[in-house]
Amino acid sequence: MGIAAASSPRTLGGARFRRRKAVDRLMAGAMILSAIIVLIPLFAVGAYVVQQGWPALIGHFPSILTEQSPAGGQLIEGLKGTLILIGLACVVGLPIGVMSGLYLAEYGRNRFGDVVRFTADVMAGLPSIVAGIVAYSVLVLTTKHFSAYAGGLALGLLMFPTVTRSTEAVVRLVPDALREGGLALGISRWRTIVSIVMPAALSGIITGIILGVARVAGETAPLIFTVLGNNNGFIGLTQPVPALSLQIFQAVASPVDPTQDYPVAYAGVMLLFLLVVVLNLLARLVAARRAVARG
User: Fold this and answer.
1) Looking at the structure, do residues 2 and 108 belong to the same domain, yes or no?
2) Are the C-beta atoms of 207 and 286 separated by less than 8 Å?
3) Which candidate, 246, 74, 240, places its Cα nearest to that of 149?
4) In a domain, 47, yes or no
5) Is residue 49 a part of any domain in this protein?
6) ∠ CA 243-245-247 to the nearest 5 degrees?
7) Structural domain boundaries, residue 16
8) What's the pLDDT tens digit per position in 143-171?
9) Count of domains forming the chain
10) Rounded to whole angstroms, how far apart are CA atoms 6 and 213?
């Protein structure tokens, strides 16, 4: 009688429930541990950058921005060059990224759309140095000199896959009822997309654009092949231009005077770090406002 009671369905069900609960807790713990492991390198790098870069930047501010470093020139010129290169990259990458993302979301449910989507995914994982070599072959070799245009092309090639995929994702979230309403009013398909779908997804598209900009802001390898750097500062779009990432690379890889170049490099790293953090915070802010507006 006792054996039958111990083997009753209720007892077996309770044991099965406890086993499932234990496995659930184990897997939840494993996921939390994995998330912590992911955060450790991020916080370690961030802490090192702040520890080394903040004293170098604030301790000698503003002279560290305007003093001529033996290896890399003035940091303020590098910051200006970086912003100019980002602007040129936006001219190249944003129209392609946004338009191709709209195509994939609205018309891309076919074989050609699959090819475009696959190409964007491959480009997103492309080593940045490859984009630099492409821009070097297309512009530097043909014009016979380094230029900001070549750097903008290289960074634009790296930017548009991120913008493409993020645009596709947010446009697909727009309710079909909005599209159907526009078509029911007799508006053409392309006008419905431009006048109704894009405004509804605008904040998400802006978020993707900011993330794309943050993706290329600190790139160094493509700029070695395209803009080369210029210790004399920015002198024109058709000439070699300075960039923060190049100044950091030059100051660390081949310092002329380590006592001067290393603090400049750490201050440059801090500036780039702050730029990327601000861009990502802007993306989060836009996404949060979008969520509040939709809620």
Assistant:
1) no
2) yes
3) 240
4) no
5) no
6) 70
7) 1-35
8) 998 999 999 999 999 999 999 999 999 99
9) 2
10) 64
DSSP state letter for 69 = B
CA dist., res. 68 & res. 78, Å (int): 11
Please report, as a single letter, which amino acid is at residue 229: G
Residue 250 identity: Q
The position carrying tokens 């947010």 is 170
Please provide the distance, in angstroms rounded to a whole number, between the alpha carbons at the two ends of the chain.
Answer: 59
Q: Please count the CA atoms within 13 angstroms of the CA of 140 that sit on its side-chain side.
A: 23
pTM of the model: 0.83
Q: Length of the chain, please?
A: 295
271's tokens: 């500036």
Q: How confident is the model at residue 15 (pLDDT cuts 50, 70, 90)?
A: confident
CATH of the domain at 259: 1.10.3720.10
Looking at the structure, tell me whether residues 283 and 183 fall in a common domain. yes
Within a domain: residue 40? no
Task: Indicate the SS3 state at residue 73.
Answer: strand
According to DSSP, the residues that pair with 73 across neighbouring strands are 69
Q: In the chain, what's the furthest Cα-to-Cα distance?
A: 95
